[in-house]
Amino acid sequence: MAINIKDVLQRMIDLGASDLHLKVGVPPTVRVNGRLQAIESFEPPVPRDMQQIVEQVLTPVQLEVFETTREVDFAFGVPGLARFRANFYVQRGSVAMVFRHVPVEIQPLDDLGLPPVVRDLALKPRGLILVTGTVGSGKSTTLAGMIDTINSELPVNIITIEDPIEFLHRDKQSIVNQREVGTDTATFMEALRHILRQDPNVILIGEIRDAETMKTALTAADTGHLVFSTLHTIDAPQTIQRIISFFPPHQHQEIRLLLANTLKGIISQRLIRRADGTGRVPAVEVMVTTSTIQEYISDPTKTHMIADAIAEGYVAYQMQTFDQSLMALFKQGIITLDEAMRASSNPHEFSLRVKGITGASDSNWDRFEGGAEGEGNPKVTGGTEDFVKL
Question: What is the pTM of this model?
Answer without folding.
Answer: 0.85
